[in-house]
DNA sequence: TTGTGCGCACGAG
DNA sequence: CTCGTGCGCACAA
């Protein structure tokens, strides 16, 4: 309930700020929500993060600062969809492209990709964008920011995420300025978010040259992908994870590492793809990366021991599978491979998981509808064609795609699994 | 003080 | 050129 309410509030706020020609940054959003609805900034931030995960809200790095966009309204002229389309974008094309492109267009937003120049400015900010994690951290910031609204807070997002990093890899010189304000008090240690950042922080230094702005970007990337989603996904895990996270670290880290490595190695090729997609939801991004990198034994690799990790990985694998199908025109086989994981997880999927899934699959707007209708994994299994086409009040086109490519496939794989069992 | 309106410059396409 | 964005300023409550 509250979630949908917050979604509304936040989206309204973003729209309002935009119409007012004010930058929809964390600080302003939190403030306005508080003013209008009396919601605490912390909560607002938390909700905002969720929305970002769902891609209902897009976090963008624009002109060196972080902005938030109403994904449903972002429909700019698609930039280089073509390029993107090659990768994942293709499928999302219809609905998401807009959003993605937006982000990417956002200009610097995903600069991370473009790193070349943006890095300078972006380093901090960039990082923010890219990393969905940033969002989480952003939350941290937000908290801070909320507590003490400072003009520079905006940057802090970046800072937030950087904060830890900086500690380790100090260098964020360009951003350095920003960090100062945000860094100190900003991060409220102890919060779940922090954990994420901490992990990242720890990881980054090792894998990347901390000094270069790029490093930051990479790091960000690194993290977002694996850790965040998993964490977020877990029901109720968000802040409680603290304890859990540690365990996860190892694996998530590994995943991150993989991503990083590839990115670095793959270098430009991937960057490009990413760039176009940067906006893409974390998942999507990861998926791509993973798809590429793990193309061989995704599920296997993914399905590893640690609980959290397993969960996360599974999700990813399932996503990947879906994506593959879409991209390739649907290869039943691949799906079958992942069936197990999918089916198992499906029952455990929360409303947020479902929404995240569809967001990642290229249907951010429709994901909102799933969330609104409180469709969790079990509900998803019970959905019929008519439910998807008419019960969610979503447009027919996307609805058909969602049902045929996702709902149906998930149900089929799930039930097939059960038959086997 | 805080919220709002908007002219204007910027950058992308 | 158009369009999205948001800074910076003036104004209102």
UniProtKB/TrEMBL annotation:
Domain named SAM: residues: 349-397
Compositionally biased residues, Basic and acidic residues: 231-243, 261-274
Entry superkingdom: Eukaryota
Keywords: Chromatin regulator, Nucleus, Phosphoprotein
GO cellular component: nucleus
Classification via SUPFAM superfamilies: SAM/Pointed domain
UniProt keyword Oxidoreductase, yes or no: no
InterPro entries assigned: PcG_chromatin_remod_factors, SAM, SAM/pointed_sf, SAMD1-like_WH
Cellular localization per UniProt: Nucleus
Region (Disordered): 75-110, 129-279
Primary localisation category: nucleus
Pfam family, one: SAMD1_WH
Molecular-function annotations in GO: chromatin binding; DNA binding; histone binding
Protein name: Sterile alpha motif domain containing 1a
Phylogenetic lineage: Eukaryota, Metazoa, Chordata, Craniata, Vertebrata
């Amino acid at each position: 309930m509250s979630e949908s309410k917050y979604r509304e509030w936040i989206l309204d706020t973003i729209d309002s700020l935009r119409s007012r020609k004010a930058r929809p940054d964390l600080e302003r959003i939190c403030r306005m929500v508080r003013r209008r609805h009396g919601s605490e900034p912390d909560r607002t931030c938390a909700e905002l993060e969720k929305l970002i995960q769902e891609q209902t809200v897009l976090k963008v790095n624009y002109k060196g600062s972080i902005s938030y966009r109403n994904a449903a309204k972002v429909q700019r002229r698609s930039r280089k969809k073509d390029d993107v389309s090659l990768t994942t974008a293709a499928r999302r094309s219809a609905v998401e492209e807009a959003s993605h492109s937006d982000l990417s267009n956002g200009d610097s937003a995903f600069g991370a990709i473009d790193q070349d120049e943006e890095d300078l400015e972006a380093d901090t900010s960039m990082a923010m964008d890219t990393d969905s994690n940033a969002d989480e951290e952003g939350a941290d910031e937000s908290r801070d920011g909320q507590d003490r609204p400072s003009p520079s807070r905006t940057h802090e997002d970046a800072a937030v995420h950087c904060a830890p990093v900086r500690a380790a890899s100090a260098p964020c010189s360009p951003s350095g300025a920003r960090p100062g304000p945000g860094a100190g008090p900003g991060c409220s240690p102890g919060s779940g978010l922090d954990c994420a950042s901490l992990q990242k922080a720890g990881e980054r230094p090792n894998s990347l040259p901390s000094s270069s702005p790029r490093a930051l970007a990479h790091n960000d990337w690194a993290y977002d992908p694996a850790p965040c989603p998993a964490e977020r996904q877990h029901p109720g895990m968000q802040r409680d994870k603290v304890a859990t996270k540690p365990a996860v670290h190892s694996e998530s880290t590994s995943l991150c590492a993989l991503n990083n490595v590839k990115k670095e190695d793959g270098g430009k090729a991937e960057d490009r793809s990413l760039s176009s997609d940067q906006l893409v939801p974390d998942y999507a991004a990861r998926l791509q990366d993973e798809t590429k990198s793990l193309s061989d034994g995704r599920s296997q690799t993914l399905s590893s021991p640690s609980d959290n990790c397993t969960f996360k990985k599974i999700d990813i694998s399932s996503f990947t599978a879906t994506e593959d199908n879409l991209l390739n025109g649907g290869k039943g086989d691949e799906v079958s491979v992942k069936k197990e994981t999918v089916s198992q997880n499906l029952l455990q999927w929360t409303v947020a998981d479902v929404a995240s899934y569809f967001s990642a699959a290229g249907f951010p707007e429709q994901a909102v509808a799933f969330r609104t209708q409180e469709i969790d994994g079990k509900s998803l299994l019970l959905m019929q064609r008519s439910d998807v086409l008419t019960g969610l009040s979503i447009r027919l086109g996307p609805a058909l795609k969602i049902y045929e490519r996702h709902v149906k496939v998930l149900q089929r794989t799930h039930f097939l699994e059960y038959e086997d069992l």
